[in-house]
Amino acid sequence: MDIPDHLMDGDVMDTTEVHETTINMDPFVLDMRSPVAQTKHQKLSNGDRVAHSRSPSFRQEIMTTTAKPALEQLPYSTSQTGLVYDVRMRFHVEVRPEVNQGVHPEDPRRIYAIYKELVDAGLVDDPSTVSLAPSVLARIPTRFVTKQEVCAVHSERHWEFVISLELWDNEDLHNGGSQMDSIYLSKNSPMCARLSAGGAIEACRGILNEHVKNAIAVIRPPGHHAEHDEPMGFCLFNNVPIAVKACQNEFKDTCRKVLILDWDVHHGNGVQQAFYNDPNVLYISLHVHQGGKFYPAGPKGDHLHCGEGPGLGKNINIPWRTAGMTDADYVLAFQKIVMPIAQDFDPDLVVVSAGFDAAEGDMLGKCHVSPAGYAHMTHMLMSLADGKVAVCLEGGYNLRSIAVSALAVTRTLMGEPPGRLATTIPTPSGVDSIEEVLRQQAKYWPCLYPKDPSKRIKQTEGERIHDIVREYQAGWLWENLGMSDLFIAHSKTSRSFTNQVLATSNHSESRPLLVIFHDPPDLVGTPDPRTQRLELHNTWLTDSVKQYIRWAYDRGFAVIDVNVPKHLTDLEETHEHAEEIDGKKTIDETQLLAKYLWDNYIELSESKHIFMLGIGKAYTSIVNFLKENDRCRERLTKVIGFISDECTLPSYKSTTDDFLDRWYRDASKIFVATGHYVWEKHKFKPPGKKWGTLQRSDYNDMQEMLSHHCKEVTGILTVLTDDWEPEAAPVVGASEEET
Ligand SMILES: [Zn+2]
Question: Which family does it belong to (predicted)?
């Protein structure tokens, strides 16, 4: 064998280890310390062998405890967890490592790091340590995968190609690998790839033969990117699909339906391809997708790829829109999607494509899954298929992260409860991704109902409530206050711009002008407990902004009311679920609208008292607008903001004008939710001038804040306009009619 020097470290190249893993077609190694193993041993054929011996004292202890069993032991709790690890899988290495590029991420030391962690934890019967666990891992020797097993997933051409590599010279291996998609090749690649796939098969066989209750296969090269006819993404043979096909073939009655759960941070394109039209293999992958930008790039990992033909609905992609996912995101995806579907599918075997590159510390994945997070996922999967779970290593490139994650998974497989989770609050992006998958998969899985209602809504020509509500508001403001639509030029046409800006007809007169930017009002209601439907008679529209408009109107102010829609209804209505416009885009567009209103209406008005009231994100738009349009400051009397706990607080500072933040402090009054992070941040030192004049509200909810502080705000406006006589201004017709 052509073994590079750096792999010849003594602790790994232990001769007993190599001896133990020599090829054996019915390869099961028993641990004699386990009482179950002792009884099993008697039942097993002569071909099975005992791998090791233990210190006499330990054996005596076991002998005495097992001498007179009071009760028959539970088979599940007392059988062992299997471990596949073979040092020879470290020999697949780069023939000519690129200078200055450091070690390739698919580092041969990966599997040793995990093995060593298990040894150090006392879970492996290794001569170098004293075992701490009452029942150590049962070693399952790996073996070479056969051509027939590989060709159940790959083309014959692909098999021939991989096998031929042992005859290539180093020059060809280097060049050949560099022409492929994220692949390096070596003379030992065929051996390692065959052992890796063989190890995955033996882990599953060990479980299905009831030699072990579950198993972890610490194998490399990984497999889930390898396609039918092409190696890619560090993968040569697709280990998990090869194992699944081999087991379905061998255990026809007991292994018919298989769940492959892929928590590697990358999409397992090869696994998806292998079973895309297969109704008996449910593939669920959680991976970073970033709209198709993350490896392996393209649309195949999106939520719309659900399988085809008889396999439709049996392919479930949970594509994260961003990196940075946490335990809480993964646990939520398990609770809402993975477990309901998996329980419905009811598999005979669960195989985990277990990459640990979503782990905290992995530079490729940039996510934050903790060892406890992996343990919880494992624990949930163990409730399926009578606990028959085979965990097969895929990616994972931080040696420490993969070691501690794999250890946590192994402990859980062995029966230890998962550790506590540091966070249970999912990220907003994670929640969005999960909801998107739920809507898609509800087409195929009744456990995820309610179904997407878009078809029904389309047939009945349904209209979006946000448009209807604005229409109602416009009607009320017209009838009661004589306010009407102000012309605004928009580059895009949308029904949501109708009535977007409403104004009293006196908006250009010499009277105080209040310009309000706000979100649409809130709908509040509790769904019917039986049908979960939101019934109109139990649903309220809360619109605290109305109090401000009413007060200003009664006081004789001119009012411009701007509604900032959360969604723009297309003229070609699709009736599908609409996401809120991206926050940054809303802020930018509202800023442009503020500029348009200023240039076309506010600046032309004769008013000497101009007030701007920004609610939520719209307040940031106003501040951004003021920063870029200095001349407006002279005419602005006061800017009032409402910041709920979900909004960021904008600052106002200029690198050129030192007095700017002082002006801002004097000109602003900002009500900030009691739970806003700014209060925590400034617990010991009050916020500086650049944040404006802040006032902590007793509330977090925007409608409650608006309602509670209405008197305070109107009080401020009254004081600031006491030099103005309301009687001096003409009163609008509509109000006369009403009063
Ligand atoms: Zn990966």
Answer: Belongs to the histone deacetylase family. HD type 2 subfamily.
Q: What is the mean pLDDT of residues 350-359?
A: 97
353 CA to middle of ligand 1, Å? 10
Of residues 4 and 597, the one with the higher pLDDT is 597
Q: Per residue in 220-250, pLDDT tens?
A: 999 999 999 999 989 999 999 999 999 999 9
Q: Measured between alpha carbons, how far is residue 56 from residues 20, 42, 119 in Å? A: 21, 21, 21
Mean pLDDT to the nearest integer, 9-27: 38
3-state class (DSSP) for residue 287: strand
Residue 408 lies in a domain: yes
- pLDDT-derived band at 457, boundaries 50, 70, 90: confident
What angle, 0 to 180 degrees and rounded to 10, lies between the N-to-C axes of helices 465-481 and 545-554? 20
Q: Are residues 420 and 547 in the same domain?
A: no
Number of independent structural domains in the chain:
2
User: Which domain, by its residues, includes 72?
Assistant: 5-448
Catalytic center residues: 225
* Cα 677 to Cα 150, 216, 674, 699, distances in angstroms: 56, 43, 9, 14
Residue 464 in domain: no
Q: How far does residue 634's CA lie from ligand 1's centre (Å)? A: 57
What is the CA(261)–ligand 1 centre distance, in A? 13
Whether the model clears a pTM of 0.90, i.e. scores above it, the answer is no
**551/406 same-domain check:** no
Highest mean pLDDT among 16-20, 67-71, 231-235, 269-273: 269-273
Q: Kindly give the residue spans of alpha helices, DSSP state H, lying in 251-337.
A: 269-274, 327-333
* Closest of 281, 208, 209 to residue 245, by C-alpha: 281
The pLDDT of 200-204, averaged and rounded, is 98
Which pLDDT belongs to residue 1?
42
Q: What is the DSSP string of 90-146?
A: GG---SSPPTTS-S-SS-THHHHHHHHHHHHTT-S--TTS---SSS-PEE----PPP
Mean pLDDT over the full length of the chain = 86
Specify the CATH number for the domain of residue 674: 3.40.50
pLDDT of residue 309: 97
DSSP per-residue string spanning 456-500 = HHHHTT---HHHHHHHHHHHHHHHHH--EEPP---SS--GGGTTS
Gap from CA of 191 to ligand 1 centroid (Å): 22
* Other CB atoms within 10 A of residue 75 CB: 12
